Amino acid sequence: DTGVSQNPRHKITKRGQNVTFRCDPISEHNRLYWYRQTLGQGPEFLTYFQNEAQLEKSRLLSDRFSAERPKGSFSTLEIQRTEQGDSAMYLCAPQDRGSATGELFFGEGSRLTVL
Amino acid sequence: QKEVEQDPGPLSVPEGAIVSLNCTYSNSAFQYFMWYRQYSRKGPELLMYTYSSGNKEDGRFTAQVDKSSKYISLFIRDSQPSDSATYLCAMNKNTDKLIFGTGTRLQVFP
Questions:
Q1: Side-chain half-sphere CA neighbours of B2 within 13 A
Q2: Nearest alpha carbon to residue A108 among A96, A90, A95, A86
Q3: Where are the alpha helices (DSSP H) in A7-87?
Q4: Which of A9, A33, A34, B52 is 20 to 30 A from A3 via CA?
Q5: pLDDT in tens, A74-91
């Protein structure tokens, strides 16, 4: 049990379509991170939330990407007009309230394949 | 130049061998160092974390940090086929976002 549920686990879509991924932490966490991982690479930071507020966005997050965390619990990541280069694993990681080191506990990820 | 460098492997060893996995980094502000294990098509799983320089041991795993050389290592003793996975190093300053290496793919054969 990773403590976080991500859905869908795998999405296959055609180029140009919109997709949305959802992240549901099991318990309360004030911070929530999104990362992207392409084949053969380590996870790359996309964005993070402190409660409802989106505090930092990577330059990897083009204007086709939008993320929300409306009530400070679950979060969604939407990609509009998908491109083949968006094919990747999208990982969500809540951060423990009392974390002194910043370690993250990742979900199983949502894998996107853009045809 | 990437902030964190890690040899992608693959590293192939026989069962029972001692495995050494390494990362170098360029940002001297990094203070917290972590190792994650990732099985195919799964999310990364936190194995160990250390603060600043020194060693930390947990069962068959030992993590070492040498801040003067900007070099971190993970040792796996008595490696098992179930240790076959990708190992990712990650680091940050304070509780800032984690920066990951590319990962080293390890194969332990019986």
A1: 15
A2: A90
A3: none
A4: B52
A5: 999 999 999 999 999 999
Interface test with B, best of A31, A61, A106, A113 (most B CBs within 10 A): A106
What one-letter code names the amino acid at B18?
I
The whole-angstrom separation of Cα A23 and Cα A95 is 13
User: Is A97 in contact with A67 (CB distance < 8 Å)?
Assistant: no
Which pLDDT band, with edges at 50, 70 and 90, does A97 fall under?
low
Give the SS3 label for residue A108.
Answer: coil
The chain B residue lying nearest A111, using CA atoms, is B41
Other CB atoms within 10 A of residue B12 CB: 12
Residue with tokens 């304070």: B94
Average of per-residue pLDDT values in chain A: 91
Residue of B nearest to A2 (CA): B45
Report helix, strand or coil for A85.
helix
Cβ B102 vs Cβ B11: under 8 Å:
no
Chain A environment of B32 (Cβ under 8 Å)? 101-103
CA distance A46 to A35: 5
Tens of pLDDT, residue by residue over B79-88, are: 999 999 999 9
